User: Fold these one by one.
Assistant:
Number 1:
Amino acid sequence: MITQHNLKERIRSTYFELISDIAHFSYDELLSVVTNHLTAILNTTHSVIYIYNKWNKKYEIKTGSKETGVFTKSLVDFSDINQQLLESDISDGKSILREKSELLNFNSVIIPLFPKFGSSGFLFLSYQKDVEHLSNNSVELVKRETEQLLKLVNYYKLSEKSVSKSKFLFDMSTRLYSMNIKGDILKDIVQCLYKLYPTFTYYLLLSQDYEAESSLPIKTIEYSDAATKRVSTQAFLTGEVQLEDRVKDKNTSIYAPLRGKQGVYGVLQIITPHAVDFTEDEIDFITQFANTAGAAIENVTLYQHSKHLVSDLKLINEATHKLNSNLKLTEIISIVRMQIIEACRATQVGFIYINDKSDNGFDILSGSTSYFATKQGQIFAEDILSQMQVNTDPMFSGNSKKNLPYCSIMAIPMIHSGNVHGAVLIMHEEKYFFSFESYKLMQSLVQHSTLALTNSVLKDKLEESVITDYLTKLYSRNHLDETLKAHMQLDEKGTLILFDIDDFKKINDTYGHYIGDEVIVQVAKIIRTQLGQEDIPARWGGEELAIYLPNASIDDGVALAGQIRTQVESFTEPKITLSCGVSSWIDKELDSVSDVFIRADKALYEAKEIGKNCVVKEKELKKHSNL
């Protein structure tokens, strides 16, 4: 029988050699060597070490063959082993449990192992019944020396694992920080999770919309009132790791916030296949992993944001440069509309401008998309404009409740010198189609374009006032003269109609000059209702009015003059009549502008001479008709 002293020396010598050569063994290999030596030293048939796995919450065999494991299970009641070890008096180091099997010719002893560092376990020893029992002192010696060995081994292996994890995080961060595409970063994060926890389930709960590949376990974190009660949302809001044991699902979830320097970008959710107790070291590592991932997501987000800013500034700069080129209103709207559609892929863009002289109080400017030519579009534009005249705040909605075919709406007021001049409406059918970045860009674009657009409108109004008669709002005689000259250079023919209000002096003498002006305005309104799109009406002077009909024959002019004469006779108050003279040109080489005017004037004079309230055309002055 080996003495206590020799036993101690042999075990210590063996363990010292193992510690000296620890770098060459894996954890399981080292424990196998330990049990092999113990079998030889203690003359046992089986020496097996079990270590408690905190992930699986059970003892796992670390040494021996499958046969050894089967043999051990035949002797040890593992369902009761935890309670047996807990009931052991481990404080004085004298915890010794002996198991005897009446069915097999073996005795066995279970030695609890509680090293001061690392996981606990137990050493199972079996020996023939005819072999002398190990003394309590020998068992206690084996326990003490093995626990000391496990302490050193656990410390070394944990340090080695810590170095390995640090290298893993370093390599991971090096890769992630070199990427500038968010999708690539998320793929790499998921791949790293699979390497670390191949049997676990995991999700990236991101705080921003991201069109990820369907293969990636990515979800958008929820912000509803109900969601704030969830553990995942708490991790996002507090920036602290959260643990959740789900009794029903019999698993454990850890939620680690994906933090960067400027904020939290989501939450990493790791779900174990069964309930586990996460160690502080593991929680710390997962936290570092999530922080590395969060920093990488933040870097690429800031990079993409900076690219967007550069792109947005370039867009604003280009638009401003074009808008400062003294363009016409239609050209300005065309540029702004193109920039809006290109920047945020809008399907409808409307330009609404306040015009007190318009019937609706506003104009839908030419260049707006087709929806705003519809009745529904005009009603919507009026509703938005009326709101903005009360409250100048812009509107940004991703799920509009206005019963429109468009869910995503941006309505941005055109403000200049503190006054609302109109609004730009930007719309899309899909819900939440426009990003907040697009909204801010559109605000900037509209702000920069408002001055150019307002100036263009004022310029058009000024030009219109120069060429427009203040009373009738028809064109001036000079403008008619210039227009006729231009048309005679380009067209093949044209017709001029001159109108004169019969007995106009009598109207002024009877009703006064104010009513006389009202009569002229009534005639002007009737003329406008009868015009074609290309026709040019003008005030010729005093009570005389005119219309030039591009590319029209003299018969077309006679017919239109007859219609207008009839309308005036029927719908003016006080009732008046018109005399009309019509002339035309068909050869620009033989005719001049003055010739056309002279012939029309002669025809008008003849209409007066033959009895008024009639239409007379040139070269047939002897003929007249009450058309």
Number 2:
Amino acid sequence: MSGAGGALARLVRGRTRTEHLTDGEREVLAAAERELDGDAYAVLLAVAGGEHRRLPDLMAALSDGQRRSCVPHLKAWRTRLREEWGYQARPRRRALVIAGAGCHTGAAAAAQWLGHTDLSLVEPADTPCLLAVLGDRSAHWQGDVAHRVAGRRQADSEWGWGHYALVEALVLRSGCAVPTGGAFVQEWVRNRSWPSRFQHRSGAPDGAPRSLLERLRADPFLDVLAPLMFEVEGVGALLTEGTDSWPQALAALAAEGRLERSALLDGCLSRLLRGGRPAELRGFLSVLNGLAPTDDEYAARATTLLRLLPDAPSTVAAHAQERLAALDADGRLDDERLVQASRAVLFRTEKKLVRAQLSWLDAAARRDRGRAGAVVLAAADALGHEDTVLQERALNLIARHLKHAGDAARPELARAAEALSPALRPRAAELLGVELPDDGAAGGPWEDVLPPVPEPVPVAPPLATAAEVAEEVGAVMAAVRAAEFRPATTPGVDAAAFERALDGLVRHAHRDRDGLVRALEPVIRDHPWNGRHAWWGDPGPGHLHYVAAVLCGEESPLPPSVSGAHAVPHPRGRDFTPFGEVLGARLLEAAWRVLNDPPPFLLAAPTTADGRIDPAELVARLAEYERTGAVPGPCDLDQALLRLDVSAAGPDALAAAGRLEDEAGRRVRVWLEAGGPSLPEPVRDARPTHRIHGYGSPVVRVRLSSAAAALPCPLGTAFQRLLGVYVADGKRDETSWNPGSRLWPSVLPVHRELVALHLQPTFAATGDEELRGGAALMPALAEAGGAAGPAVHLGLAHTLGARHPEDRTAAVDALLVLAARGDLEAARLGRDVAETVAAGTVKPNRLLESLREAVRAGAPATVFAVLAAALPGMLAAPEPVRGLPDLLALAAECAGTCGARGPVGGVAQAAARGGSGRLVKEARRLRDVLGASVAA
């Protein structure tokens, strides 16, 4: 390196500090110094110093050949920066983007560099520097780069602001066609929505138009991109952002003739018809309202409005319904379209829409008595609505207009009335002059249609080859990673898959450890072990990774420490849940043994998918241990004992256990003869509920009546804690929801009450803290073994009022399974429901949705039994319970369906109150249904 170029490099190097560079970056810089001339090397030095503003001047002196010579070194630098996302690396990354853009002499290569995922950090303020290093290229070249960069982005991706500013500048400079990809359209809308922010950051002149309307008038992209706004996902949510109003601006441009009004109207309606997220549709609905279509314009689009009624979000459907009703009031809608609109709306669950539709029908019949026949037949669709108040409203409408409808409508009305609530059928029968069936009186005592009692599912055979083990371990790791990024939509790892993979690691480490290591190497390469940091959280399925990492030499195993009666390894950390400690102890023991003394297989591997172990199978495993001289791991044996299904132990299994000679066989025999541990009685906490910091959420608790369980034989400390004092005294943060919780039922598969006890905070948080996925374990507890006591029922009460529909569905599934197995105490659940509602943990409207789902599934008698126990407490509450009339209506419907009779506490008193409020009306209806004789 000599001459002017060498002098320039020395000058830049004298100003560049390199102590902050990583070893890899220093290697790249050293190679560049050996291979590049002085001028080219100065560019690399500027990148090293993060001096992006110097790059335009440095690169202006380079030939195309010199620029291309820098490319391999810049690519190598990009690779070295891949894992460096800290703030200190940001200046170097910015300089690297600009240098690479200027050194690639081909348009495709330059665009690929700018759009590379490792270089996604681009600043809008860098646009002038980027334009400077690209400025000596032809207009065609710059336009080609603009379209290629725009094309590398997807409409649903996170668009980099610097990329948009650069593309827009290149399009304007080159005069090329405007890009029409979804991402460019979306970012154009966002850019125009925030003028001060982006004009300032991109260096726009102070005199630039400030209002959105002014900017759009002068916008060279408007004519091309405005029609595309209705086709790109994500634009709608942007139309209500920013400092100005897009709806007003677009309406003004349409009024001026700059944009075609009919195209905007059709675009809005077609986009609303496609559906989407609520925030997305609100933007287009705002544009439609801003355009303020006339009656003539709506009449020309009546078919589209009708198509919005069945499935559009309620706000959109309400707008379409309102405009159609206005057209009908002006005589611009025929009977066929009136009936079509009613059929679309009256089956929807939104009460406001149904009430509005019935009011529209009533008004139509009042205006023109000749339409009464069409009106009453249309209103008949609401007689089958799940809400009895709306059924009654429809019946009142039919009663008002029946005399003008003619006798031809009566047969169809009678068929529709069969769907009415039993409480309304007598009135409908009298009105129509027909007899309607009484579900509760026909066919003898009512029996709910419950799901079949689930049978334990045997687990798959052990993994046969090391390749299968590697595949299963990789699947567990991938599932854990997916659950971390998408916890709301990913089921996570089930216990059977986790246990099968763990047993496979131990089993094949015993058979051929070297072969297993070779099979695991690609898995470890794709999923690097995070070392000590991985133990910061409560151990879960992902910590299977630790055993694989130990096998492959990525981590050194921890030796076991003496704890309690056994040598139990204790995981690092003090904040693990008891279940996390047990799982961590098992994994640490397995990792130590696969290197030092691998057993032939795990004793604790479940024989059924829910985690249970058949006694005969455990005895056979211990016999094989004795035959081969293998020593059981203390944690492995403890877990096997807790999974032992003692109820399935027959005489043959007990006899075989008696023939075992070592200490482990004696412990299993004692455990089976004692019928397992004697657990403390769970009881409801007598202390008053209290509110948790920050949330204001009451906690209703179950605790254990004594400190410890009576064990047939000692267990390790971590395992014994599971059977003793409950660690949480009501504090939510003690047992917060985590991915490892999915394994908890399999740790104590025959003691579900203890699992539910530890999960109390999680179940409560599904409602008052709106935790998503917290009820996923309720069906597993419903199918598990052991008593279903206060904790299980309280957990069910909480999750029936969960915030998210998928959690409520899981709770309903658990309710039906418990009822099918005969484990549901409806009175207990009803009292728990009333208490959680009174405490504010459960909202009645969500509880109502869950109970209605159970009724639709075929369990009205079960639901009535729950409500019969819940309603007295709710009716006696000092403050009115919001939503209580709906629960009374559902109880009346269930009682009428299943033929329930007899008083329910508090109902008669509520029915005797004065006034015509809905609570009183629904209480009277329930009272009348319960007091009706079966013969009637």
